[in-house]
Amino acid sequence: MGWTISGNYVAGCSCAVLCGCPFDGPPLDKDGNVGCLGSAVFHITDGHLDDIDLSGVDFAFYNEFPSNLTSGNWKIGLVVDSGADDEQAQALERILSGREGGPFGALSQFYGEYLGMERAAVSAQDDGKPAVKVEGRTDLTYEPLKGPDGTPTTVRNAMFGFAPEFGVGTATGTSDAFGLSYQAAYGEAADYAFSSEEEGEGAARGRA
Hints:
Largest sheet: 13 strands, mixed
Distance between the termini: 24 Å
Order of helices and strands: EEEEEHHEEEEEEEE
Number of strands: 13
Structural class: mainly beta
Oligomer: single chain
Strand content: over 45%
Shape: globular
């Protein structure tokens, strides 16, 4: 049966606006230091792994990218909402670690260290200014950049992205999980859809 997950996400990282990771550029913070520390919170509107229903589950994906993404040696960690049951959490770990193939299977070639899975309350809200929280770890608010017509600025067809087109902006707040601590500066948000059928040429690619 394979797997599929779709919904929406909000991400933040330590990079100055705009983060270079989607373009395989060097990730730089406001002081010019190289490296991207980030987190992305996903809400699954609809999803499954085989016969395990993942709909309604929230999770957070943490990263440390020491250089441009294709240089590899990424550190990756996962926090699954405490409201999910153990079977759902284990299914998400199998997907995000790359063991179930699909786009995360393709990305796992760049993983240098998998930091494991933890459980905590994960939540997201969108009342005009999207915000995400991971209990005891992450508290971020996203503010989109806007063009001269007042609509949100987006990036489309980037080399790496959680979606084919995603909004970009600023993020405020802090994050400290898996020993990865940062003050947020860059942010992005979009709807997403991943599945195990996305393989090979033309497969969707993720930033983390």
